[in-house]
Amino acid sequence: MFGDMMGMMNKLKDAQKKVEETKKRLDTVLIDESSNDGSLKVTLTANRTIKSISIDDTLLEDKEQLEDYLILTLNKAIEKATGINEAELAAVAKEGMPNIPGMDMFK
């Protein structure tokens, strides 16, 4: 029984290491999103860190439109990044979970 417990602990440590590696890798996965007319472009990582924002000069003339475009475009990009992030981390967590009775909700 003690050996099984040590094996499970090692599997959990391995899973934690893989999750951390995946988080680092997700910093290199870039998501690009644009407004419908292409006048605003944003890039962020799958860990939801904004890397760049490109604004067409025409948007600088209308503060309200620029704010609306920023909100809409950033929200779309964040939604995509969150989907990628959650799918990747869930896959790693599922793969690394030891078989603990009653904890099959992760399988």
TrEMBL record:
Principal localisation:
cytoplasm
Q: Which Gene3D superfamilies match?
A: Nucleoid-associated protein YbaB-like domain
Coiled-coil intervals: 5-32
Q: Where in the cell is it found?
A: Cytoplasm, Nucleoid
GO MF terms listed in the record are: DNA binding
Q: Name one GO cellular component term.
A: cytosol
Q: Keywords for this entry? A: Coiled coil, Cytoplasm, DNA-binding
Q: Briefly state the protein's biological role.
A: Binds to DNA and alters its conformation. May be involved in regulation of gene expression, nucleoid organization and DNA protection.
Family in the record: Belongs to the YbaB/EbfC family.
Its assembly, as annotated, is: Homodimer.
Q: What protein is this chain from?
A: Nucleoid-associated protein GCM10007028_02320
